[in-house]
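testing teh design pipeline on a random one, pls ignore if ur not involved
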């Protein structure tokens, strides 16, 4: 009987152990499922994060390309560039007054865009390039800007193919120091729709700017960004990883063109890499983002370790039960249950339990403490997950702005819905150019936008439903609106933000409001509206709230700027004809009205006219305060709200003051220039002195100097020089015993015969006869 009881007890214990081991099977299955599912989630998150990063780079590069092409076209359409093109083989470009203006314009154009490395304007007939602070002739320059001339053969080939513009990706740029770097070059052939190319604008973008566009990679990994041209040429590469070879780059590009991209991995230098590709529809550039596979597996490995540890502990517990009694096993299970559900964690067994399990207490305690450590580790993982929630929220909002809500990784993020109202609108906030002494400089733009975002949150608190997010250059507000708030709430909030930022941060901002949409998937349209509105508002002074409706005009609008009328206005200014300039200004205004364009677009062309008129003034005086005082003419123009007020302002505040000031300066400078020219002749009459040489010295055209000299002196420049030399010859004949040949050298003639011929023509006798006659007269008088 005792043996039977012992056998039954043993069988019961073994049955419990078997059941426990069988119960481990679902745990193993659950762990395997979690491991596979977690791996897929991580891979999906890598794909989404990489896609978001590379899409931002592509969008930023597309905007840069569009901006370069747009600014190049606007620059090329200016009147002084058109005048530059019309110059023939002579006079020399460097001697024209407008050359300095063009050089300054090119320098301002380069400094206005951080991505630009350099730019210059090329004149085809004279083989001269303006830019970099000077003018150079291509054929004989060995230093300066034009150590780089590799673009010239490409330009000639493009002209032969009748191209209007083209991108060169990439090109080696030769520095003045002897070093070289890679640039991307944009060429605009001039004039537009040419039959004969007269000039070209060459703009160089530093490839280093492209790779600096990505500041981080998914999971903080050491990744790699590569940019390819349409033909597979590697334009730029950047990132912490070592640079890829030409063969590796070709493999990556060929993979991006493969029809089967089901596998996101590829081998690079023996390592497995996750690859993400994006192709620009604007210029055909291909962007490749590479992330080491080990970075994506870190979270998966952590999950794998947790599952393995849990399974091993449970298996070890099953083996221990084989040696424990049934009662001890039951008490152990109760104790484990208490630990699992948080009851008595880190507590010690009671005195009763100690008595009952005296021989096994150290083993049960070991199990308890191991499980407690495992649960603490789970709590740490939960806390880390909570820390990641703000990042997931920001990624979710960026996905909404960029129209990437269909991404599976966004669905897996399980972010609680942020919006309940049916309508959405986007406000984009951009920092205006800081004034001297401002609290925030241009390099502090990120910190400034962070402060603006916090101010916006405070203003929206408990009043308006909205979320803020920061991009590389803007603070963006996504508003969730009820139907009755569509018309007024975005504008009121934008004005409140503008006033608050100016009050607290002492810096102005420009805010653009996009269209209202009725679907979260269409928010990207409102965001793009606001971005385009800010970009089209470049000519204004800032510190305002603008809506996409205010800046919009028909996309099919075909309008040709009246450059012929502008040219006539500038000619009247130079001639000092105020009545004629006012008449031409009226023609300019009638032309704009007949086109039926909006007042905002009219202001754009009036600003362009004002720029040209101020450049005429700057031919005589760079200091505009002498004409406009402390007023900013651009700000005064933008503040006007009707075409009649703009026309009156131009006549009274621009044309009359400019003409009056130019006439005063011209009178003073004319006398000063003539006096300086006479002094120049007196100093250098013995050298090879020509009108071109003196005009180049004073940086004026020879024809202008000739007309001015004859008007003020009453004789031509050449005749004045000849007469001055002859007077000096007379002095030398009377005061020295030098021979005629020596005197001819002293006064700048190449030989004695030339001097004798000129002297006889003016004085009616030869130099020898003049000396002899003067000596006879002196002897007679003596």
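output:
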């Amino acid at each position: 009987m005792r043996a039977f009881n012992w056998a039954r007890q043993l069988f019961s214990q073994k049955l419990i152990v078997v059941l426990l081991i069988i119960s481990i099977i679902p745990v193993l299955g659950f762990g395997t499922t979690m491991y596979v599912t977690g791996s897929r989630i991580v891979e999906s998150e890598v794909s989404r994060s990489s896609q978001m990063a590379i899409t931002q780079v592509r969008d930023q590069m597309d905007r840069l390309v569009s901006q370069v092409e747009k600014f190049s076209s606007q620059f090329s359409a200016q009147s002084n560039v058109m005048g530059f093109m019309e110059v023939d083989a002579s006079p020399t470009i460097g001697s024209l007054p407008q050359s300095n203006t063009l050089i300054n314009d090119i320098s301002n154009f380069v400094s206005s865009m951080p991505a630009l490395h350099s730019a210059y304007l090329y004149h085809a007939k004279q083989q001269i390039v303006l830019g970099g602070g000077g003018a150079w002739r291509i054929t004989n320059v060995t230093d300066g800007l034009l150590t780089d001339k590799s673009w010239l053969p490409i330009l000639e080939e493009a002209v032969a193919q009748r191209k209007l513009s083209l991108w060169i990706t990439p090109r080696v740029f030769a520095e003045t120091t002897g070093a070289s770097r890679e640039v991307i070059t944009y060429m605009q052939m001039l004039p537009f729709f040419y039959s004969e190319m007269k000039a070209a604008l060459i703009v160089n973008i530093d490839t280093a700017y492209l790779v600096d566009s990505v500041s981080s990679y998914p999971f903080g990994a050491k990744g790699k960004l590569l940019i390819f041209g349409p033909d597979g040429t590697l334009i730029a590469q950047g990132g912490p990883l070592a640079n890829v070879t030409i063969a590796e780059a070709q493999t990556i590009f060929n993979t991006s063109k493969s029809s089967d991209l089901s596998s996101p991995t590829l081998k690079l230098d023996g390592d497995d890499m996750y690859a993400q590709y994006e192709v620009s529809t604007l210029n055909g550039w291909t962007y490749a983002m590479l992330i080491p596979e080990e970075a994506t597996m870190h979270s998966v490995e952590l999950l794998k370790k947790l599952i393995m540890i849990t399974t091993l502990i449970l298996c070890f517990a099953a083996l221990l039960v084989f040696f424990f009694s049934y009662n001890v096993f039951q008490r152990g299970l109760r104790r484990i249950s208490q630990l699992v559900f948080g009851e008595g964690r880190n507590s010690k067994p009671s005195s009763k339990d100690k008595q009952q399990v005296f021989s096994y207490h150290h083993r049960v305690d070991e199990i308890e403490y191991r499980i407690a450590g495992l649960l603490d580790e789970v709590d740490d993982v939960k806390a880390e997950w909570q820390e990641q929630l703000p990042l997931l929220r920001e990624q979710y909002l960026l996905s909404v702005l960029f129209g990437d809500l269909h991404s599976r990784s966004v669905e897996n993020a399980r972010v609680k819905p942020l919006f309940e109202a049916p309508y959405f609108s986007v406000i984009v906030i951009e920092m205006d150019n800081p004034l001297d002494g401002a609290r925030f400089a241009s390099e502090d733009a990120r910190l400034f936008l962070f402060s603006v975002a916090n101010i916006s949150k405070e203003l929206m608190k408990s009043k308006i439903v909205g979320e803020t997010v920061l991009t590389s250059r803007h603070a963006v507000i996504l508003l969730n609106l009820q139907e009755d708030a569509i018309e007024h709430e975005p504008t009121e909030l934008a004005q409140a933000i503008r006033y608050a930022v100016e009050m607290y941060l002492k810096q102005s901002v420009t805010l653009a409001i996009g269209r209202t949409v009725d679907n979260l998937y269409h928010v990207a349209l409102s965001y793009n509206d606001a971005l385009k509105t800010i970009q089209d508002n470049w000519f204004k002074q800032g510190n305002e709230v603008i809506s996409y409706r205010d800046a919009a005009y028909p996309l099919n609008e075909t309008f040709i700027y009246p450059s012929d009328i502008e040219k006539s206005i500038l000619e009247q200014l130079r001639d000092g004809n105020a009545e004629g300039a006012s008449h031409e200004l009226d023609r300019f205004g009638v032309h704009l009205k007949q086109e039926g364009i909006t007042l905002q677009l009219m202001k754009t062309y009036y600003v362009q006219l004002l720029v040209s008129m101020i450049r005429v003034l700057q031919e005589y005086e760079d200091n505009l305060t002498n004409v406009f005082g402390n007023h900013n003419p651009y700000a005064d123009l933008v503040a006007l709200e009707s075409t009649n007020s703009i026309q009156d302002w131009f006549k009274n505040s621009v044309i009359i003051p400019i003409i009056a000031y130019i006439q005063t300066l011209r009178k003073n400078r004319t006398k000063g220039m003539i006096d300086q020219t006479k002094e120049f002749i007196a100093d250098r009459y013995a050298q090879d002195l020509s009108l071109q040489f003196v005009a180049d010295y004073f940086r004026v055209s020879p024809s202008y100097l000739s007309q001015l000299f004859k008007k003020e002196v009453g004789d031509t420049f050449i005749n004045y020089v000849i007469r001055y030399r002859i007077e000096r010859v007379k002095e030398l004949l009377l005061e020295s015993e030098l021979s005629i040949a020596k005197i001819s050298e002293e006064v700048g003639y190449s030989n004695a015969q030339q001097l004798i011929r000129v002297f006889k023509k003016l004085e009616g006798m030869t130099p020898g006869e003049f000396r002899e006659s003067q000596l006879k007269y002196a002897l007679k008088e003596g």
